[in-house]
Design a protein that fits this description.
The structure is a homodimer of 264-residue chains. Chain A is α+β, with helices and mostly antiparallel strands. The first copy, chain A, contains eleven helices and eight strands. In chain A, the strands form two sheets. In chain A, strands 5-4-3-8-7-6 form a six-stranded antiparallel beta sheet. In chain A, strands 1-2 form a two-stranded antiparallel sheet. At the A-B interface, α1, α3, α4, α5 and β4 of A face α1, α3, α4, α5 and β4 of B.
Amino acid sequence: MTATGGGRPTVTSRVLDILEAFSADRAALTITEIGRRAGLPLSTAHRLVGELARWGALERDADGRYRVGLRLFEVAALAPRGPALRTAAMPFLEDLYEATHENVHLAVLDGLDVVYIERISARDAVHVFSRVGGRWPAHATGVGLALLAHAGVDVQERAIAAPLRRFTDRTIATGAELRRVLAEVRRTGVAISDGQVETFALSVGAPVYGPDDAVAAAVAIVVPSDGWDARALIPVVRASARGISRALGAPRALRSPETARHDR
Amino acid sequence: MTATGGGRPTVTSRVLDILEAFSADRAALTITEIGRRAGLPLSTAHRLVGELARWGALERDADGRYRVGLRLFEVAALAPRGPALRTAAMPFLEDLYEATHENVHLAVLDGLDVVYIERISARDAVHVFSRVGGRWPAHATGVGLALLAHAGVDVQERAIAAPLRRFTDRTIATGAELRRVLAEVRRTGVAISDGQVETFALSVGAPVYGPDDAVAAAVAIVVPSDGWDARALIPVVRASARGISRALGAPRALRSPETARHDR
């Protein structure tokens, strides 16, 4: 697939296909591998990779393989839904982390997936699959359910109609169940994913609102199912979500009494 | 400047110039502004920005201005010197943060600048200029001095010969002084920047080693000069740096007795 979505690939789309050739499990590639994965003739891959490397979008390591470069990290740090969002949220994520010393997630919705913007994990925290910059189907996770529940009706209906990937026997498996859960999340203001990604992990998530009072992100705490009660985590996750919303300038968080209590 | 470094700009270099048009203080740009900053005809800017936006490298906001997109954040998350390094370091940065509840920095060297990979700050921490993805002259900061002291001789000599930007009257101002300080950092294993960026901030940094036992990054703690003694921070910063080096698989951190003590 090219950035132009069909038709004769442009140079721009080829450059983007080269960037797309890299993935978490393929973070270091030779020019031949890049060419193959991007569907480019070796000579073209050579020329474009050379330009990308000179600029710093790619870095060549000692054994001649290429990796994503620091310069791209610098540019990406300007993404409003990336580090910019993360920076506003970080102090509150810290507070949330210190409340449990397990895992804290900050994520945004992209299509029917969540993309993790931040993850804070203790060395001995319960294992989670999330990775900063990583994607995960929204229907299975605490952050994802919090985001889906407040997404546009069209997005919600697409999620309800879509095949729901199953991770455990507790993963939401039918559109009807997802519809019910999303309504529940809107009613309670929190999303609970208990053993729906991994049987031993419990996630409690809450929506984060932006300056336009629309949901901009979601924050969640992930702990071992065994030994934790979701109800005990709801207040702190909710307070954290409100704090981040306030930091983002969400009117509803500025006027909310819960926020006032949180501030005292 | 284009990615090809002169000559007729290629499409690739134009795409990269478009990305380069965005900066921390210019995070949202109209197509006209992008064209002007990237030195492109409006029609060209229109076409290239359109392709970048379709792929997700740029995002168009409600008022029609463009920002760096989430997709670029996803790709940049694969940069080994970016989030990958950060992920290995994070648990140790957490420990370091909890030791002072001020500021913790993780940075790498790029030319004569440091680029901040991670920053953890308490809401009420002493003010620091650092920003994830941001750059700062290496000679002024704790992380920077720790990195420069262990950089190649050519890099050190360039730094010593270069004009040294002055931030306060305590900023290292002469090549001779910088040379002396770098030798001191190598001798003690820690770098101290006291009031050299802002008069009221004290930074203590230490080098982080990679799998090849070369310095891969530096970690630092930044606290108010007033009320903190650098000597009290040296052990915890050193222990943190060794812990991160060990997590990165640095042989010297695996065999070091200090590390063993740190593990007990």
